[in-house]
Write a structure and sequence with these properties.
mainly alpha
Length: 94
């Protein structure tokens, strides 16, 4: 139980730190991730019901959402290289 609480606090602090640097990208990542989850549920449901046409569209939508979620997550974590170099240069000058 204590490990779960500790992991939740650690995750919250990590996302809070990322939100300070890339708020817009983080929002995009969150929305693409939610879209991926919704389309995956739709894919499973339509596959279970045997609706082949709808299943195909939900699967394609899920694929697009997952690609965009990975891309926005990469942009959120990697940051801007120019900004990083400028910060390193100012620290070296001081």
């Amino acid at each position: 139980m204590e490990c779960i609480i500790l992991l939740m606090i650690q995750r919250y602090l990590f996302w809070k730190q990322l939100n300070q640097f890339g708020g817009i990208i983080m929002k995009a990542h969150k929305y693409w991730s939610i879209g991926a989850i919704v389309t995956m549920v739709g894919t499973f449901y339509t596959g279970y019901k045997g609706l082949k046409a709808a299943h195909k569209y939900f699967a394609f939508g899920s694929l697009i959402c997952m690609i965009m979620a990975v891309y926005s997550g990469h942009k959120m974590i990697s940051g801007n290289k120019r900004t990083r170099k400028q910060v390193e240069n100012t620290k070296a000058e001081e």
